[in-house]
Amino acid sequence: MVFGVDHLGPFLLALLLMDKLKANPSRVINVSSYLAYAYAPPEGITFDNLDGRKGYNTWTAYGVAKLANILHAQELQRRFGAAGADVTCVALSPGTINTNIARELNFKILVDQFKTAYHWTNVIYEIFHLKTVDEGASTTIYCAVAPNIIKGEYYAFNDIETKIRHQQVGNVELAQKLWEVSEAMVGEKP
């Protein structure tokens, strides 16, 4: 369900809108998370376990889905670019926003969160650097309206993120495979 909601939903929406997006200068913005770096395994997308039947961990599933958001934006940009379309596709991390979403966290969940993390220092950083809602919205707004956005990039703090990015970001082969698997899962082709 995590992969479906966080990746396949936006993937299908972009697929269904491709012709409309190509018709006019457009932007596609995928909201990802720093947690892609913290929780997706080093190989990136675990294609043989997207449904969690071989083992499920909430944090890993979320990290994989959020890495998929970044790879999707990059592959979507590659495809629009190859078609000569004036479409800008990016992904971004808004950071950890101080809302009531974590109200159900307890000690057991926090222990699991740290045990699962590939980069737990990032998790600690995020916990102690919560953003206000306005600060969290800033990068999304920036990517939506700034004239100097670089197509296919991954943003955070209103700039290209270079420090906290998963090692598979930019892996063209992985992004292409993710596209093919996602097409098969949603039953649509552009």
From TrEMBL:
Keywords: Oxidoreductase, Signal
Signal peptide stretch: 1-23
Cell cycle keyword on record: no
Gene Ontology MF term list: oxidoreductase activity
PANTHER family, A to Z: PHOSPHATIDYLINOSITOL-GLYCAN BIOSYNTHESIS CLASS F PROTEIN (PTHR43157:SF31), PHOSPHATIDYLINOSITOL-GLYCAN BIOSYNTHESIS CLASS F PROTEIN-RELATED (PTHR43157)
Listed name of the protein: NAD-dependent epimerase/dehydratase domain-containing protein
Source organism of this protein record: Bifiguratus adelaidae
